[in-house]
Structures are given as structure tokens and as C-alpha cells.
Amino acid sequence: MTAHRQLHLAVAFPGSGPAGVGPAGWAGAHPGSRLAFASFERLAHTAERGLFDFLLLDEEPPLPEHRGRLHELDPVGGPEPVAVLNALAEVTTGLGLAATVDAAVGEPYDLARRLATLDHLSAGRAGWRVADPADARPGADFRAADHLDPYGRAAELVSVARRLWGARSPGGAARPFAHRGRYFDIEGEFGLPRSPQGQPVVIQAGESERARELAAASADVLLVRHAPLETARSRHADVGRRLAAHGRTPGELKVMPQITVVLGDTAAEAQERAAGIRRQRITPQYALYALERIWGTDLSGYDPDGPFPDTAPSPGPPDPPEAGGSPSRDDRRLALAARWRTLAREKGLSVRETVIEASGRQSFVGTPDTVAADLHRYADEGAADGFVLLPQLPADGPEEFVDRVVPLLQERGAFRTAYRGGTLRSHLGLPQPAQDR
Amino acid sequence: MSARYGRGLLHLAAALDQPGVLDAGPYVALARLAERGGLDFVTLDDSFARPGPDALGVLCRVTPATRRIGLVPTVTTTHTDPFRVQAAVATLDWVSGGRAGWRIDVSATEEEARLFGRRPAAPAETLWQEAGEYADAAAKLWDSWEDGAEIRDAATGRFLDRDRLHRVDVTGTAFSVRGPSTVPRPPQGHPVRVVDATDGHARTVAARHADVALVRAAAPAQAAAVRDELRERARSSGRHPDSLRVLVSLLVDLGDGEFAAEPGHGGGGPRPTARGPLYRGGPVDLAELVAGWHADGVTDGFHLVPVDPHRDLERLVNGTVAVLRHRGLFRTFYPGSTLREHLGLARPANQYAVTGRTP
């Protein structure tokens, strides 16, 4: 075991995407703050002050609908991430800049060119998070993503993009490419040479078998959910085995759980703050909405502060069979409803209290000392290569983490005290991709 | 001709194109220079057919380094997704605080078509018709969020007012999109749309959808004729002709010294070349030309494309613009903050908004 394994740190912007603020946690922020460039600039400056590896901006999902109408409670609407990152490149010098871009839509040439532009203009700091095809939400098909196999398309898109990024000689001379695959049939010359880091860092997310396999085959970073230490360690080992099967060494894919952190001067204060944040996120209206999504019926007659429904939801029409033989969406929905009803009955909780109770705890809650020690333990015991901080409330940047936890990680020798190189690949300790032959 | 008497303020724009440049620095430097000259906007051309960075990405990069100047990248409507493009243009508008434009263009070559492999190359007429549908869909998506749709009403827990969001469902000849957009309505309502209307097929799109039309013309009479035609066509498609600015687009070569216009082409006036009309001469003579054409009501202004970007833009700002300012013919500071304000164009009403509702 290495005594001082180095952590990698990143932060995600409170978007409404899968890594986002989520349930109605916007109270207290100003209108338009999800769009003002100043919000992004402030976050980027804080992340850079904390010497983070990268900032991740999510692509906005299509507006959610609920019961046939646009859903009004969640914060939605935000900028196109690659455009914002190009602007952030002007006001930062070391921070990596990563965008989530859907791989179920979009054409490889255009996508590769836009990301290569960001990579050149930022002198090698670009990252591309390939959105997990399993994240596809209702309405996502409105952008003409009419594919039977989104994983297959995503895999081909990533491999074509990498090919294009390497399609020019080191001197910059154009070399023609031709690709004939299942989804793309293209040829020509790519308009940009290799960037200062060779090519953008490819980030993938997902827990599923296929997502993990796809990442092991070609990604540089794998984003995963937070898990207890033992689970995280065996997951990490599994990823390592898959990497080896693809002829790659363990350091070539960084596994980074996405976590939430709540700090306090004492353990009790931290717990209290964590509970307060959960209450703030789950408004009375949101609690009913969460219930309606599971029950599939109008529950607006219920009092969020009143008793939990004593009827089970009725089964819906069977889902089309899903890959991998996982339980159908309807089964999962019914199982969730049963769990919530049991929870409410056993603890005597109201609707809102049940949703708050069930909606998940923050990943790390404690004093800066205990949180730094916990994070360090994950890295030291081979359970994570680093972490992506997810904000819980819109006004909640990584300031406190940067001011109170980063110095402790540095004291432990677990985090850099300066950027050693200029590119995102150098921050992550990733090799430059080999030149296309 | 009424246009002559209705002559407005002089508008000036310049191109930032620097072939082969991939670093941000030179683009930022030129945009700042143009801003020092008080120009309405800068353009950055783009094409999949030649090497170079994504123009919209470059102008996003320029945004935090500038404060007032309009930023107009070329984005093709062929081979691209209108949903994403309108979102990216709207984002440029948000990031720049209302300074975004979009130069609408098409990609007609077989070479470009093969980079995408989705369809064969098509004739310009078809592509410009698609461009019109595309521009129309983009405007619908920009309008799909009414201003103030984000209400953040803590009492009811509502982030949005769904009555101020609108479904969009457009099936064009070459695309289909559905909305609402994921980006709220941009600060200018509609970022400024620019169309090079020199090509006849582009003229219909320019008359219907453009806020600024560019005309490559070597002679005043030719420029005036196209301007009159565009204004007339704008009127017949239901627009007020004054909602369209027509700028003459010229290549400029200011490298030969103050009065060294080549003999034989009228004291430095533009002459046709394979790349378009070229003005070669000194910056003071160029100021004469600009002032003269504008005074005659031939044009609302000029879009100048430097042959040597650094040299010519520097001479343009410190020579030509200085002379025009000295004569009181061009702004000495930006009275407004958005590109529409520089151009004297109103913020468009939302096509979906119900009038008379309390805000």
C-alpha cells in the first residue's frame, strides 16, 4: 500500500442534470443565477484556488414533464456547457474544463471539432464527459436520437472522435481518415492538429456492466456513485481487472465517486446541517411530486405534512424487456413504493418526512478533520482515485471544502500543493494518447 | 428614394479571421482592438471545408476579455442540429450579456457532406431554403421561454411558470426539432442574425430573417440596388424595412501607404476580385469612401475584411475610424450595451407571449 496516494478532485456545477441540485433546492438563489456568467466564473475561481483537477458542467436535460405537463418545481434551463467552458478558459489558467455532451445525438465530426477547439483554446485543459446512455430521460429523443442501441452508438462516437483527434501528424499536416461503422460512414480531413495534451480527456459515468466495460475499453475517467468503503474497493478492483483485459494498466482509468460533503465544527453540528439541507431540498410540493411520480396518480389531495398514503400504487403496463434482464421499471417503482410505505409506518412519518428520510444521506458528514481522513482512506485503500463534489444547494459552492478540507489533505500529503503541469492530462497523471499510426 | 432621407447612424464591423491560428491570444487582441475603435461587431467565419477552430467557441473565449463589442460567429445550417446550435448561440448571448450574433451560412460542397456522411451535397437553392426553416425554428426555440418564465416562487415551491413556456414542434425539409429549449430566452430576445445576401438564393433568407445583411458590392449603384431590393422584400414579407441593416462587405488592404491607391481604379475605390470586392489604399481614403457611400444613402455601413488582420485592423481603427470620429460620423463610445442597441434594432417581441398579462 502506498503511504501517500494522491487524490484527484473535481466539482460539478449545480445544473439540473444527473449530477445536479435536483429537487427544488434552489430557494435562496437569485433569478438568472443559473445563467449569469459571474456564477460560473466564481465557481471556476474557487475550484482553481483549490487546485482541483477539473470543473464539470452538465448539458441541460430536456425539460421534465409530469402528468402530461411541464414540471414546475425543479430548477431547469441553463447554458450550453462547451460555450461556457470556452469563456471560462479566458479567466482561468490551470483548471481542467469538462463538459457533459450527449453521445446519443450529434455527429462525430462536429462534436470532435468543438471539443478540440476548447482543448486548443485552453492549451490542453478540455474534458468530455460522455453522457451515460442509460441516463436518457423522457423527451430525450426529441433531438432525433432514434437509436436501438445507444451504447453502441456512444462507443462508436467516442472511438471516431479519438481517431479524428489523432488524425493529423505532430507537425500538423492533415492526413485523410475514413471510417465505416454501424452508425457513421465518414471520410475527409480533420481541421485541427493534436492539442497540447494530445486530445481531450474522455470521462464516462455509469454503474452498469456495459458502462463499466465501455469505460475500461477507452475512457480516461470513470464517474461512479458513492458507495461504502468495502463496496467501493471491490468495484475498483473490478474496474482494474477489466482494464487489464483491455491491455491497459490500472493508472490509465481514474475512478472518481461523485459525493456530497457536509462540514461542521463538531460531528453533531455537521449532522444538523446535513438534516437541514435535506429539509431545504425537499419542499412540501416536491414531496408530493416525488410521491406522484411513483404512484402514477394524482395525489394533490394529500397533505405533505399529513400521513403517508395507505394504498399501494397500481401496476402499470409492462415495460419492454430491458437489456441484461434487470427488473423492469414498473417492478422497481412498485418495490420503491413498498419500501417507502414500510418506512413511514415503522417510524410514523408524514409524507414529507418519509421522502426526506428516503432521499438519501450525504456521502461524507463531519468535521474537516474526519472528512479529510475518510477521503484519504478511500484513496489509500484503493477504493477511489479521487472525488467529484456535487453541490446540494445552488448557493453551495466548494468554498468551504477548499478552505477547510483541501489544506488538511495537503498536510496529509494526499493532494497537490500546486499544479505541476498545464494540461488536464498532467493533473490526472494520464499518459498522452499514442499517436495514430 | 426615401431610404436616402431615412439614413441612420453609420455602422461598422470587421472580420477577425486569422487562418491557421489556434491560440486564443491573437483573437482576443484583435477583438479588443476593434472594441477600442467602437465597432458594432466583429465576425469570425467558419467552414468544415478548411482547417481552423470552431468560430462560436473562439468568440465565447473572447467574451470575458471584451465588454461592449458584438460577436458574430458563422455557424452553418447544413449538417448541424438546430436545437444545439440555437442553444449555443443563446449561450453566447447570455455569457456576453447580449452581444451575440449568428452569421447564418450553408455548406454546399461534397467534401463537407462526406465529413458527415448523412446526405449528399445539395444545391445552394435547397440549402438556403433549409436555412430559412432552420432560422425560423431557432427563433421559435428562443421564444419558447417567455421572459420571466423563471419565477422561483418560494411560497408555492414553483421554479417555473409553465404558462410562460411553449411547446415547439417543427418538421423542416431536413430536420425536426421539438422544444421548449433548454436555454431560457437570451438577453437580446433574438441574437442578431447576419446573412451574406450577395448570393441570390440567400437573399430570401436575408429579407425574412436577417437583422443585418451583408452585400459584397464594388460600386455604389450595385450596393444601392441590392439594398433597395432587400428592403422591398423585407417589406413584402411583413417586416418594417428599417428593421434590416444592410452593410457593404469589402476586403481591405491598407498596406500600401496613405495615398498609394493602385492606378486605374478611381482613387482607391474597391474593385472586383475573385475573393470579392477589394479596397486597396490608405486608411484616410477608406474613411472618405465610407463617409461618401453612407452619406449617399447607399448603405447603412460596412463590414471590412482585412487582408492582413493585424496590420489592417490596426490601421482601420487608428486611421479610418479616427478620421470618421473626428468628423462626427462615428460613435466615440458605446451608448448601449447590447449588439441590438449598437445597431439601433429593437428587442423583438416574443411570438408566443400573450399581451396584457401582468408580469
Automatic annotation (TrEMBL), chain A:
One of its GO terms (molecular function) is monooxygenase activity. Coiled coil: none annotated. Residues 34-383 form the Luciferase-like domain. FMN binds at residues 100, 147, 151, 208. The keyword Oxidoreductase applies. Residues 300-330 are annotated as: Disordered. The keyword Oxidoreductase applies. Keywords: Flavoprotein, FMN, Monooxygenase, Oxidoreductase. It comes from the Bacteria. Belongs to the NtaA/SnaA/DszA monooxygenase family. PANTHER family: ALKANESULFONATE MONOOXYGENASE-RELATED, C2H2 FINGER DOMAIN TRANSCRIPTION FACTOR (EUROFUNG)-RELATED. NCBIfam families: FMN_nitrolo. This is FMN-dependent oxidoreductase (Nitrilotriacetate monooxygenase family). It comes from Streptomyces echinatus.
From TrEMBL, chain B:
FMN binds at residue 74. Keywords: Flavoprotein, FMN, Monooxygenase, Oxidoreductase. It holds the Pfam family Bac_luciferase. Gene3D superfamilies: Luciferase-like domain. Coiled coil: none annotated. InterPro entries: Diverse_substr_monoxygenases, Luciferase-like_dom, Luciferase-like_sf, NTA_MOA. Residues 23-261 form the Luciferase-like domain. Belongs to the NtaA/SnaA/DszA monooxygenase family. This is Alkanesulfonate monooxygenase SsuD/methylene tetrahydromethanopterin reductase-like flavin-dependent oxidoreductase (Luciferase family). It comes from Streptomyces echinatus.
